């Protein structure tokens, strides 16, 4: 179990606690309780018994939390750096996994070597490195094609649980049909895609000096800014659609967002 220097807030994994949908074992019908998720109300059973009834599902099969980091040079940009923000997300997810007695696995998806960390000491050391990495070390961050990363993650599907994909997902390879993988993931893993962006990337405003992470070109004039904004918004929409077809819950996070509140809204 990871031990942190100070207590961290944890995220209530409602998505695991109240799992529903295809591939999960139906447990029983229960009477609806105040503050329960209304999505679980069973209309026909409620009519039969004359009061609101909810379906409950067994989550015994879920025992893992997979944290998958898709590395890239652009994660070293931003204030605070996107990689530093991602390390804070990882810490909260790991603390939450420990609270729910789930086994945590950290997958580092790098084109030089794909690594899986399952030892608390190794994970802690890696997160410290993420916080202290400098822009001069960017050459050590070599992007793995997204499709390769997904194929690797398919090999982990027997370890059922929550799988969180982290990165900024620029220059994503859309050649792989996500619906082909959806059926393979949906019976064993709950997929979440968290796309982390700097404030100027997620909501660029006139007057900001924005940098295109794909070309490293800096845009300062209004004309080039408008082109940048249009391309960024179109790309984000395409990205969201791709993750939806993969069967993943997709969220765009800014490095200015408050943690863990932002994560609790997602999970």
Description:
By secondary structure, the protein is of the alpha/beta class. The protein has helices spanning 14-17, 43-49, 82-99, 120-132, 146-154, 178-185, 199-202, 222-246, 261-266, and strands spanning 26-31, 53-57, 64-70, 103-109, 114-117, 161-167, 189-197, 210-211, 218-219, 249-254. It has a 6-stranded mixed sheet with strand order 5-4-3-6-7-10, with helices on both faces. Strands 1-2 form a two-stranded antiparallel sheet. Strands 8-9 form a two-stranded antiparallel ribbon. Helix 6 (178-185) links the parallel strand 6 (161-167) and strand 7. The two termini are 22 Å apart.
Structure summarized in a few sentences:
The protein has helices at 14-17, 43-49, 82-99, 120-132, 146-154, 178-185, 199-202, 222-246, 261-266, and strands spanning 26-31, 53-57, 64-70, 103-109, 114-117, 161-167, 189-197, 210-211, 218-219, 249-254. The chain is α/β, with parallel strands linked by helices and 267 residues long.
- Count of discrete alpha- or pi-helical segments spanning 4 or more residues: 9
Q: What gross morphology would you assign? A: globular
Kindly state the mean pLDDT as a whole number? 80
Class inferred from helices and paired strands: alpha/beta
Question: How many beta-strand runs?
Answer: 10
Q: What radius of gyration results from the CA coordinates?
A: 20 Å
Point out poorly predicted stretches. Answer: 1-8, 19-24
- List the strand order in the largest sheet: 5-4-3-6-7-10
Beta-strand percent range: 15-25%
- Summarize the helix and strand pattern as letters: HEHEEHEEHHEHEHEEHEH
Q: Share of helix among residues?
A: 25-40%
Question: How far apart are the termini?
Answer: 22 Å
- Main sheet record: 6 strands, mixed
